[in-house]
Amino acid sequence: MPRLAKRQKYRDNIPTKDPEEYFRITLFLPFLDSFVQQLNDRFVNHQNIISGFQMFVKSSEFDEEKLRELVEFHANDVDDFDRVKSETILWNRYLTDSNKQYNSVIQILNECNPDLFPNIYKLLQILITLPITSCEAERSFSTLKRIKSYLRNSTSERRLNGLAALNIHYEVSVTPEEVISHLSSTKHRLDFIL
């Protein structure tokens, strides 16, 4: 346990004799508070903002508070609240009148006319690009650790991106014929005589 001083500026000066209680108060409890706060910021606080996107996917009842939070959060990307509100009302009417069934947000984005609904179109684009989980980024970093070893340290960025994409998306099958046809169609600096 660190010694106690009469006047302390740079660390906690907890008046206790027990080292376990000192480290619990100075390290463990602030760590737990920080951890809980980060979980709340990541999941609970953004849940209301993300639930505002539901008005654009389903023809549900209009919730002005959720839409206001969504517009305030994405204020740099969309117009003012009144325009987005009027577009949302028209978009919901369009969804109920069309009576179509959509399987994905991409189908809804393709159905949305960017000239008639510019703000809805931007918000649907944002919804598509939102990462639902962080597993894709974690997979890419673990892949990069395997690909860029000290033997391949001088690999160019283009080749490294290609190797990473092949390793991350291993479920996509690439046949040798596709690779040969692609390589034969590109222009080479050297002429090969076969």
List the helices and strands and how they pair.
Blueprint: H1 19-51, H2 54-57, H3 64-73, H4 81-98, H5 105-111, H6 118-129, H7 135-147, H8 157-168, H9 176-185
Largest sheet: none
Query: What's the overall average pLDDT, rounded?
Result: 80
Task: Name the helix and strand elements from N-terminus to C-terminus, one letter apiece.
Answer: HHHHHHHHH
Structural class by helix and strand composition: mainly alpha
Low-confidence stretches: none
Taking all Cα atoms into account, the compactness measure Rg is 27 Å
Measured distance between first and last alpha carbons: 77 Å
- Beta-strand share of residues: under 5%
Sum up the overall morphology in one term: flat
Helix share bin: 55-70%
User: How many beta-strand elements?
Assistant: 0
Written account of the structure:
The structure is a single chain. With 194 residues, the chain is mostly helical. It contains 9 helices and no strands. Helix 1 crosses helix 3, helix 5 packs antiparallel against helix 6 and helix 7 crosses helix 8. The chain is flat. The mean pLDDT is 80.
Which structural traits does this protein have?
single chain, 194 residues, mainly alpha, 9 helices, 0% strand, RNaseH-like_sf, protein dimerization activity, HATC_C_dom
Question: Would you summarize the structure shown here?
Answer:
With about 190 residues, this protein is an all-alpha fold.
